[in-house]
Amino acid sequence: MATITSRENDPRQAMVLTATFCAGAFCTILGLAVILGWWFRFEPLIRILPHLAPMQANTALGMLLSGAGMLAWRIGWRRSAVGIGSAAALLGLLTLVEYLTGSQLGIDELLARDYLAVDPGRAGRMAPNTALCFLLTGSAIMLTGGSGPSLPAHISILSIGVVVTLFGAVSLFGYASGIDTSYWMGNLTRMALHTSIGFLALGGAFTLAKSVTIREAVEQRDRDKALLAKTMHELELQKFALDEHAIVAITDPSGVITYVNKMFCKVSQYRAEELIGKTHRVINSGHHPREFFVDLWRTIAAGETWRGEVCNRARDGSLYWVDTTIVPFRDETGRITQFVAIRADVTQSKKIEQDLRRANAELEEYVRTASHDLKAPLVTIEGFSGYLRHFIEVGYSDRALECVDRIQNASRRLKTNIDEMLELSRIGRTDQPPQAVDVHAMLQTLLSEFQPQIEKADADVVIEGGPAMVHCDPVRVEQILSNLLSNALKYGHPASGSARITVCTRPEGRFVRLGVADNGPGIEPEFRERVFGLFQRLDAGAQSSGVGLNIVKRIVEHYGGAAWVEKTPGGGATFCVTLPAGQATDTPSSTAKRETHDDHRAEAGSFSAG
Fold first, then answer.
1. Of the N and C termini of the chain, which has fewer Cβ atoms inside 10 Å?
2. Residue 450, strand partner residues
3. In the predicted model, is pLDDT for residue 220 greater than 90?
4. pLDDT of residue 584
């Protein structure tokens, strides 16, 4: 039900307060004066002029009660107003009963004997229209004092005020125009002149008060509607902003999804109708243990907010991480009615976090190994420098030249280690813009440069596959090929017989797969991941920094590809890499988002050495 709040500091309310107080005071004084006139037989108070109708003592009592009731209402004495109004209404009601039934209830001369009565059978009885006005006025005072500030009550009081005002105005008009029927109905008692003035004051006060109040109610309703429209607009904007940023879902108390926003569907790759009516198990990745979700449900079932990071699985099988806040909502009884989950996609930040952890681990390994690999040549240089000085002093020139050779070898090894470490730090930072690179043409150039090493290793190098174009920095492609060929020539020769190295290329979707296979001793499965690690050497006696294959892995991953080792049929190892195809227009970062390291391995079969 609508309610109305009065604002006493409003100028219109101040006017209403003044008008109703004056009307109440006037009617109170008028009624009291006429009662005194009857008691002291002072006719000018009873009837203003000798030929006019007198105000009966009961009428004066009703006027006194009505005025006092209005004053009590205005002062704020609600219970008193209800009681006084009830008495005025009862007086009018009993008088009407007398007229309707023709009975005598003994109330007509309640306060004074009517010595001016024309009809002894109705001596002291107020007019029927006067009794009706008192019934209405008393009822209005009861409504005002007894009801809350509701709009229907104000409308009812306004209606009563208009009717009472009309009765008073019509009677007053009859006196002014000489039309008796306006205040007198046949042989019934007439409404006195000052009675009509009192009703005009009472009805006018009620009409004015409730007109202003209802007008304010309408204005307040318009303000509320405008505020509601503004609030709804702001909520729509906030919802739009939230939907653009956050993943939102609502479930019932049992966890069944009742609402998902567009961002939820976009990230999970499910349509809304595929999610609503189901639980979040549909996107469960299996990453978290059962205890994780037990704790989550225990928290929200207790009415508490749960916060944490959750790994989910999209429709295509890919994993994504969300920073999640789940808030329980209760009804007025305290019962949980729904759960609202707001999530933010943090997959990229989790990837960065994992990369940082891996980088830190590699950095620790880098520092540990570098301290050894960089010190070893320096120790050699320092030691043989001392020998060199000694041999020069004693004149052993042959031994001195041997020391010089050792120092030069150590210096070259130190320079190689430093260059490779610097190269690791440059990957991804100093690359040229990707361009189409002909892998076969680059292989032919490299094989001519590697001819001395090939002859020294007594190796047979074969290139298989059709034309292969990749979309990369040519310098980085050359690094990959050089490292893989160098690795095969160093470690891919068999214990007996001649070495055979096969370089093969073939397209695989948006990528080109490149494999370098040898017929050497091969690599056991447990070491196939390790060979790509920083400073990793499976042959402890090898004269290698253990950085080359790590450079290969970092380059291909930078371009969205992958690197791995397979067993070569017939014995040996095959080092495989994938790079974006030359005709691709996608950037490396966008390509990497679509196909992962695991995707390439899943597509790869055995890579034949031919």
1. N
2. none
3. no
4. 39
Q: What confidence score (pLDDT) does residue 110 get? A: 84
190 secondary structure, DSSP code: P
The 10s digit of each residue's pLDDT in 155-169 is 888 888 899 998 888
Nearest-10 crossing angle of helices 11-39, 193-245: 150
Q: What is the pLDDT of residue 43?
A: 87
**Which pairing describes strands 336-345 and 459-464: parallel, antiparallel, or unpaired?**
unpaired
CB of 204 within 8 A of CB of 198? no
Classify domain 246-345 at the CATH class level.
alpha beta
Quickly name the fold that domain 435-603 has: Heat Shock Protein 90 (3.30.565)
Say if CB 303 and CB 328 are below 8 A apart.
yes
Q: Per DSSP, what are the bridge partners of residue 577?
A: 514, 563
From the CB of residue 252, how many other CB atoms can be counted at a distance below 10 Å?
Answer: 12
pTM of the model: 0.46
Instruction: Please say if the pLDDT value at position 11 is more than 90.
Output: no
Max Cα distance, the chain (Å): 167
Task: Pull the structure tokens for residue 478.
Answer: 């050359």
Q: How many residues does the chain have?
A: 610
Q: If we measure between CA atoms, which residue out of 73, 59, 55 comes closest to residue 206?
A: 73
- What is the mean predicted confidence (pLDDT) over 206-227? 83
Which CATH code of 1.10.150.240, 3.40.50.2000, 1.10.287.130, 3.90.550.10 fits the domain covering 351-426?
Answer: 1.10.287.130
pLDDT value at residue 545? 54
Q: How far is CA 529 from CA 369, 377, 563, 603, in A?
A: 18, 28, 9, 18
